[in-house]
Amino acid sequence: MEICIISALCLCFLLVGDVVEVEASHHPYRNLQSLSGEQPYRTAYHFQPPKNWMNDPNGPMYYKGVYHLFYQFNPYGAVWGNISWAHSISYDLVDWVHLEPAINPSDPFDINGCWSGSTTFLPGEKPAILYTGDDIKNRQVQNLAVPKNVSDPLLIEWVKSPHNPLLTPIDDIDPQNFRDPTTAWQGPDRLWRVIVGSKINGSGMAILYRSRDFVEWIRSDNPLHSSTKTGMWECPDFYPVSANNTNGEEKFSKHVLKASFKNQDHCILGNYMPMTDKFEVDTDFLDEGLDLRYDYGNFYASKTFYDSGKKRRILWGWVIESDSESNDIEKGWSGLQSIPRSVVLSGTGRQLMQWPIKEIEKLRTNKVSFHEKEVKDGFIFEVPGITASQADVEVSFDLPNLDEAESLDPNWVDPQLLCSQKGASGRGRVGPFGLLVLASKDLTEQTAVFFRIFRRHDNYVVLMCSDQSRSSLREGLGKTIYGAFVHIDHREKKISLRSLIDHSIIESFGGDGRTCITARVYPKLAIHTESRLYVFNNGTLSVRISSLNAWSMKRAQIFPMQNRRKQQINYK
Ligand SMILES: *[C@@H]1O[C@H](CO)[C@@H](O)[C@H](O)[C@H]1NC(C)=O
Ligand SMILES: *[C@@H]1O[C@H](CO)[C@@H](O)[C@H](O)[C@H]1NC(C)=O
Ligand SMILES: *[C@@H]1O[C@H](CO)[C@@H](O)[C@H](O)[C@H]1NC(C)=O
Ligand SMILES: *[C@@H]1O[C@H](CO)[C@@H](O)[C@H](O)[C@H]1NC(C)=O
Ligand SMILES: *[C@@H]1O[C@H](CO)[C@@H](O)[C@H](O)[C@H]1NC(C)=O
Fold first, then answer.
1. Domain residues of the chain, as ranges?
2. What's the pLDDT score for residue 458?
3. Does the keyword Signal apply (predicted)?
């Protein structure tokens, strides 16, 4: 056994049975970590490469005790281009070591870019990557890569198949709209299935292919699903999900089909019949924007994987900058990954619930709590004693008598518009109440994450908003106000909110993860120790905080492996 000294400069990884020592140094990139007064928007516990452009998460997996994340990466700059598959590894999805890119554009079938794709475990637990290549003719084709050495838990080297490209855009397939293969699955007939995102004759769709050997693929007569209302489907994802019942009942087991379009990740739930590959959807993609989305804010091109170690489904999503490209170039990087989220089906079987993975809680420190505190009309108070620019806050509100809630015009159907027009700065009856995040002391900068409850017909409508309109004194930023409804059982008379705050990102989970909204914000004043966190209520009816727990978050250890140390990874 090697002795590994754990220090700020060293990450030590222990594998069951073997010892893999990875020594990593942040030295070359010190100025890019948000340790000092510089780089106020660099995150401390979200996944980021040391520098440059990142977009979609690719091929996440758990293999021989190691989590792998690949991602779309430009090795040469902070803008999109020259896309390769960068590669990082982790033991807990919190601390990461960056390895060398696993797949680079080098062959006629991917020379213009190695675009998104997924990992599948072939028999014998052998991982295989299917990815899109932008080929020498600028056509989108699907390629295969496999590890050079499957005994290496770090899977450092990948080999492209001599059979590439496996899938090409023939017949009615548009060569510019054919990408992002999913994880494949095997049917009862032992044939592999995979879907690829496309748009044909004006409809977004998931083209279905089948294969016996994972090399030769035959297109199915029918797509798995299609829609006239969506445009091109990017990054489709298709997987089973069940309710998080402790008694193991899978009463509401369903399949999720996700497609990325119009800047958000839209989902439909349904029943999949593996014999016939029929997917009967509960509610299809809709015109009005009322369909299910993983996140109603800034969250795109996501991908899930099944974590066989902890028996859970985990979701990663790309969170793009909403600052200008010239500022991205100046700061030297662009793009974040969300905190990995577990995904389960809600008890009603009609929606998904997401929650930050438990492991992230290891970064919590300096806990501050309140209990049974009344927040009266127009009241605002600070949550003191935490680093509000790098924090995790969970709050649960007891609701007042909802009989007195304002009634909502039945014509108000667009929650995002409602949030813009009935924002935090307006007064209401039950709400707006919630958090003011990344706020300056004088409140000239603040991002309000809040609820407001209305009566409609015989029922109640809970609106959740993330209002970036006052998030920064800086000009030239995207400051969209996001909004969505939260489908809670109002008879419980309470609602919870959790926000993960990390310098330039706020990930908020309403109603125990029924509704999620992620925002990027770039405050001018409310940075580092100048940032504050408040609770507010601008409704005339009091709400009660049954409990509030807030923590400062420690920095995750996310470092590149030093090139010169690479040969010193020891296996015993
Ligand atoms: C892509 O790489 C080439 C060669 O390294 C470089 O000249 C070019 O600027 C890069 N493009 C982008 C968008 O990074
Ligand atoms: C493959 O990886 C294993 C485990 O890390 C190692 O022992 C072996 O030497 C590697 N084989 C080759 C050919 O590199
Ligand atoms: C698209 O339209 C063409 C011409 O009508 C037809 O041959 C083809 O089957 C259609 N494709 C799909 C997937 O609907
Ligand atoms: C699922 O259930 C487990 C055990 O009860 C719990 O720890 C976990 O937080 C639950 N996950 C979600 C997403 O509700
Ligand atoms: C509450 O409402 C008042 C009056 O409209 C407004 O000045 C204040 O900014 C609001 N509070 C918040 C947190 O938006």
1. 51-355, 365-553
2. 82
3. yes
Which one is predicted more confidently, 451 or 563? 451
Peptide bond into 560 cis (omega under 30): no
Nearest residue (by CA) to ligand 5, atom 11, is 425
Looking at residue 79, its pLDDT comes to: 98
**Mutation probe of ligand 3 site: the residue of 172, 205, 219, 232 with most atoms within 8 A of C-beta:** 172
Decide whether 51-355 matches 365-553 in CATH topology.
no
Task: Identify the band that residue 249 occupies on the pLDDT scale cut at 50, 70 and 90.
Answer: very low
Position 235, amino acid: C
308-338 tens-digit pLDDT: 999 999 999 999 999 999 999 999 999 999 9
Name the residue among 173, 166, 99, 203 with its Cα closest to residue 563: 99
Model-level pTM? 0.92
* Cis omega (within 30 of 0) for bond into 75: no
pLDDT for 568 equals 41
Burial class (CB in 10 A: 0-12, 13-18, 19+), 247: exposed
State residue 178's pLDDT score: 98
Task: Give the number of whichever ligand sits closest to the CA of residue 203.
Answer: 3
pLDDT at 459: 87
Atom of ligand 1 nearest to the CA of 53: 14
Fold entry, domain 365-553 = Jelly Rolls (2.60.120)
Question: Which residues are known to be catalytic?
Answer: 56
Of 150, 42, 153, 151, nearest to 97 by C-alpha is 153
Give, in order, the Cα–Cα distances in Å from 467 to each of 299, 366, 381, 421, 434. 16, 27, 19, 11, 11
What residue has token string 């494949």? Answer: 184
CA of 80 to the centre of ligand 1 (A): 10
DSSP string, 292-353: EES-SSSBEEEEEEEETTTTEEEEEEEE---S-HHHHHHHTEE-EEPPPEEEEE-TTSSSEE
Give residue-wise pLDDT tens across range 276-288.
999 999 999 987 6
Check whether domain 51-355 has CATH 3.30.700.20, yes or no: no
3-state class (DSSP) for residue 453: strand
DSSP 514: T
Q: From the CB of 201, is ligand 3 less than 6 Å away?
A: yes
